[in-house]
């Protein structure tokens, strides 16, 4: 399957590299031609976006957001060129934006998949990397061998075009929550004069624990009962309070500990103290 990579920022360039390495026939287009010229010896550099679309079966759009994508669609000759093509959208945005763009693209006679990227450019094409797609399953299955060039663990989430965007919000929540926790941890250890390695050296073991806790939470959620035998929320909350008290005492940021105490304090007020920490899910889903 021939494909065009539309947008050659850091992520678009990494995807183009993965597609070329995977042996695909690739065309590239970028609003600033200089970035496209870097691929001239390995891919077709299209003179216009309409030309890139006309010359390929599938177009992978890696622009900054849905608004930018729609603006580019409005350029002369682009919409007309899409009839019969497969349009794969990989920018970040909301489920509502994904559904709206899907409707617009399919009205133009193209097949639409919404996709989201759960990695950074450096790991595009890696065995453990995952992209998530939603939309027409038949279209996804036809494109899957090509799409898995970008991430071997990629998969289809369902027919609703907004599903991939919702999963992206989950990924971003996990990513940013993890990084905030990492930075808060470094602030604690630095306040005590400790080297950063005290945190970074522990991360691999911590990731094992997070994975185990996630699996345990999944089990409790599927069971429909948040009671277990590991650590009740009352116990966790005492540790959360230690975070806040220590942050306040050492004059480092207490924004993250305060948020944790506020959220799980609400869970205690609702009577979830005897449950596992998974009981806190209800505060997020039913505020």
TrEMBL record:
GO molecular function: DNA binding; NADP binding; nucleosome binding; oxidoreductase activity
Boundaries of every 6-phosphogluconate dehydrogenase NADP-binding domain copy: 3-158
Keywords: Oxidoreductase
SUPFAM superfamilies with a match to the protein in the record: NAD(P)-binding Rossmann-fold domains
Highest taxon of source: Bacteria
All copies of domain NADPH-dependent reductive aminase-like C-terminal, residue ranges: 160-283
Name the UniProt record assigns to this protein: NAD(P)-dependent oxidoreductase
High-level lineage: Bacteria, Pseudomonadati, Pseudomonadota, Alphaproteobacteria, Rhodobacterales
């Amino acid at each position: 399957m021939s494909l065009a990579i539309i947008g050659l920022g850091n992520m678009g360039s990494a995807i183009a590299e993965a597609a070329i390495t995977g042996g695909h026939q690739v065309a590239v287009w970028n609003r600033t031609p200089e970035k496209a010229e870097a691929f001239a010896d390995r891919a077709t550099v299209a003179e216009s976006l309409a030309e890139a679309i006309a010359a390929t079966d599938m177009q992978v759009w890696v622009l900054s957001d849905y608004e930018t994508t729609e603006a580019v669609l409005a350029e002369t000759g682009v919409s007309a060129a899409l009839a019969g093509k497969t349009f794969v959208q990989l920018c970040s945005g909301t489920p509502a934006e994904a559904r709206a763009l899907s409707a617009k693209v399919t009205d133009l006679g193209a097949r639409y998949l919404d996709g989201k990227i759960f990695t950074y450019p450096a790991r595009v094409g890696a065995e453990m990397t995952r992209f998530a797609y939603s939309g027409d399953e038949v279209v996804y299955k036809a494109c899957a061998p090509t799409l898995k060039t970008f991430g071997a663990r990629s998969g289809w989430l369902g027919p609703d075009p907004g599903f991939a965007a919702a999963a992206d919000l989950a990924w971003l929540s996990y990513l940013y929550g993890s990084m905030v926790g990492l930075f808060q941890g470094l602030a604690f250890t630095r306040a005590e004069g400790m080297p950063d390695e005290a945190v970074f050296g522990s991360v691999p073991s911590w990731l094992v624990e997070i994975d185990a806790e996630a699996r345990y939470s999944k089990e409790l959620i599927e069971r429909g009962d948040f009671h277990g035998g590991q650590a009740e929320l009352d116990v966790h909350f005492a540790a959360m309070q230690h975070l806040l008290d220590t942050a306040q005492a050492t004059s480092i940021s207490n924004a993250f500990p305060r948020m944790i105490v506020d959220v799980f304090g609400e869970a205690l007020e609702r009577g979830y103290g005897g449950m596992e920490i998974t009981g806190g899910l209800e505060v997020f889903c039913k505020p």
